[in-house]
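Minutes, project check-in
Item: structure for the 466-residue chain
Input as provided by the requester:
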Amino acid sequence: MKRLLIQNGLLVDTEWTRHADILVEDSKIVRIAASIEAQEIPENTEIVHAEGLCVLPGIIDAHTHYHLISRGTVTADSFEEGSRCAAFGGVTCVIDFADDDKSGNLVRCTNERVAAMAEGMAVDFSLHQGVYSYREGLEEELVALKQAGVKVIKLFTTYKNVGYMIENPKELKALFSLCKKLDIMVSVHCEDDATIQKIDQSYEGAYTPAAHALLRPSEVEARGIDTVGRIALELDMSLYVVHLSSKAGLQKVRELRAKGLRVIVETTPHYLFLNKEKLEGPDGPLYVMTPPLRSEEDNEALQEAVLNGEVQVIATDHCSFTREQKLSSNDCRTIFPGIPGTEELLSLVYSFAANSGRIGIQQVVNLLSTAPAKAFGLYPRKGSIRVGSDADLVLFDPDEAWTISKDTIHSASGYTPYEGMQVIGKPVMTYLRGRLIMGDNMYLGIPGNGEFIPQHDVGRGKTIMH
């Protein structure tokens, strides 16, 4: 039996913070106490001294796309490389994505993705399963999907041109009804496709990277949220909105919540800290993602929403392409959309919290670990420091100041969208189920050691009504 004792750290859970020692046996936390002396434990127990460090539950990046095959190419970060980024960022579990091949067998889509990830992942993972059509036998597909451990589906209100969108409103509502009946959470990429098409038809400008923000403005997001929000409200079911990007989208969430809708809102660091000015100039293609970057006013509105509790989850939508892939086109319609971000997540959000003076490290843990664990049915195995939980632990130095750059980040993309940003707080050691996977700036992850984590009761992330 492998034992690990972490002494004298500041343990940070969403519900409490205290200086304490933590004992791990094999993959689980077995004891937490004010002091656990070496003579109390068996010989050959590894002892780690954590004075001056915070001990956090492993971060969960609730929205990733590692090794995504799309548009005739594949993203830069494979499962192995994505795991490396995760370990350096204190991330011990990711929620990735399985496509729907529309063959009428969702569980096969999930199982194929799980099998592929299991070969390369060095951190744990779970999934949300895309659903791109309403068809006969879908209820049986969803039942089988639940039995396979996936209780969250992903829908799109755009991308009709590539077949991701369920266009018929009656079919969309019927799918929502099935999910309510089966207790499956619905997560949605919210952009109104009809509005996008209308704008594109009347647009007469050049299709530069900067045009991306004009072609998919914030009203597109607000209308997409309104469409699915009304359905969920009518059916009295909760909704998970992925990567909220705009002040207008936030206002629509507020309106729906005022009517009683239960909404779990996810946003990302790029919508909090980057704006559409990044789309200008020769490096503009590097910053193209969907939805597009918006204005500084949108950044500020979303930052305030994080600080006042209107946002429940911050994830990254990590979907990295190399500089060469991104810069191969200057046309926003054909630039590969997506950016890296898993590794930068914890330091960016902690720095924002610390600089705000309004939320502390416990709220950071909630946004990045506990709330996503609850939303995706992984809690308390993940997202907490308690006896019986997986020993996914991050030793975090809250005082280390450093600069994000391509030289300090490990994505195979070869760049970071946060180049030059000065942050405080850095993961020093990352443990996955009691095994060190990053320490002393060395990567120790083993491809294939990551496990698929089945989901149980989903949609229990903290939701605040306004």
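Outcome recorded: The longest helix spans residues 218-235.
No further action items on this chain.
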